[in-house]
Amino acid sequence: MSELSPAYTLLPMLMLFVAGFIFGRATAPSRAARQSRDIETSFAPAKSSSDLLDALPADTQANVRLLLGSGRKIEAIRDVRHALGIGLTEAKDLVEHIEASMSRGARAS
Predict the structure, then answer these.
(1) What is the CA 51 to chain-centroid distance, rounded?
(2) pLDDT digits (tens, 9 = 90+) for 37-53
(3) What are residue 30's phi and psi, to 5 degrees?
(4) What is the residue-wise DSSP string for the chain?
(5) Does the global pTM surpass 0.70?
(6) What is the reported pLDDT for 24?
(7) Cβ(98)–Cβ(53) under 8 Å?
């Protein structure tokens, strides 16, 4: 049995590498498609606090008001995030919106 020279073993591996590279480049999404997808997801329109407040269940709204009344704002934000499945910033804004409406109601009385 004769041994194959290193050139004969490296050549098929190099050919497979090049073929895989070309196949990967041909099937991957284009740079423009990736950029437009990233832009669409990063600039999704945020819902306003009043829209989110309408989507918040009544029992959760009551619980948030109780938590805010007892000074437990972080727990109120956690409840809103869990109920609506939104991000921290949106939940914080909504809780502050509820808190402001509570203080306006207290001043009006």
Answers:
(1) 19
(2) 655 554 455 677 778 88
(3) -70, 165
(4) -PPPPHHHHHHHHHHHHHHHHHHHHHHSPPHHHHHHHHHHHHTPPPPPHHHHHHHS-HHHHHHHHHHHHTT-HHHHHHHHHHHH---HHHHHHHHHHHHHHHHHHHHH-
(5) no
(6) 86
(7) yes
